[in-house]
Specification:
about 220 residues; alpha/beta; Rossmann fold; 8 helices; binds adenosine-5'-triphosphate
Length: about 220
């Protein structure tokens, strides 16, 4: 049997229940064996000064995932040239995993709608099956239909297909949570509670290291 490995890239600044819900849903709906969370060391679209240190983001992921044997955190992007492009990360992982591995790439719809700005995106769509969570569905669905047309996919229910070697794109049916990392950072700055947005162990880590209160801890 071929291994089915989910790859979940993001800044995870910090990891929250929305990320965890997406991973749990993808694991079940797409019958994945494992999911590897891959925090971005230096993503092309962000400035280093906007990000919390890689160390803190990785530590928070490790804490959030520690009781889930199917989930792991990989620091692979810290060892790749910067800025780090997803296609390069995927090529690197393809060399590390056995040849009989199928890769799945998890994203929210907001990120997937930007796919045409990603380096070698058609190659990426041929190397990994994208699994998309319909975050902000109401606002974003007109853009979703437009993207299917621009990329030349035929759409049938929750699956997009192409006949040119690119893999299908799966849309998850379970509704995502509305939480985002930027809302969490803003709430912390305002001194508001974040208990319903992150696991308790993450809330304590943020408090202990005084993250997101300003420049301290970055
Ligand atoms: P920020 O608010 O700082 O932009 P974020 O909450 O979107 O952060 P990221 O780490 O940038 O978190 O997201 C990584 C991936 O997870 C992206 O593909 C994003 O669309 C997806 N994602 C983030 N939050 C959710 C959510 N609540 N539901 C579904 N997908 C999500």
């Amino acid at each position: 049997m071929r291994a089915r490995i989910g790859l979940f890239g993001g800044t995870f600044d910090p990891v929250h229940y929305g990320h965890l819900r997406l991973a749990e849903t993808a694991l079940i709906e797409c019958s994945l064996d494992r999911i590897v969370f891959i925090p971005a060391a230096m993503p092309p679209h962000k400035l280093a000064s906007e990000l919390t240190s890689f160390h803190h983001r990785v530590e928070m992921l490790r804490l959030a995932l520690r009781h889930r044997p199917e989930f792991e955190c990989s620091s692979v992007e810290a060892h790749l040239p910067t800025p780090t492009y997803t296609i390069e990360t995927l090529r690197h992982l393809c060399r590390q995993y056995a040849a009989d591995t199928d890769f799945f790439f998890l994203t929210g719809l907001d990120a997937f709608l930007e796919i045409q700005t990603w380096k070698e995106y058609n190659q990426l769509l041929a190397m990994a099956t994208f699994i998309v969570s319909e975050r902000q569905r109401e606002q974003l669905s007109p853009f979703k239909a437009q993207l299917a047309g621009e990329l030349g996919y035929s759409t049938a229910g929750t699956i997009w297909k192409s006949n040119d070697g690119r893999l299908p794109v799966h849309f998850l049916t379970q509704a995502p949570l509305t939480v985002s990392s930027s809302t969490i950072r803003e709430k912390i700055r305002q001194g508001e509670p974040i208990d319903d947005m992150v696991p308790e162990v993450i809330r304590r880590y943020i408090l202990e290291h005084q993250l997101y209160r300003g420049e301290a801890g970055r």
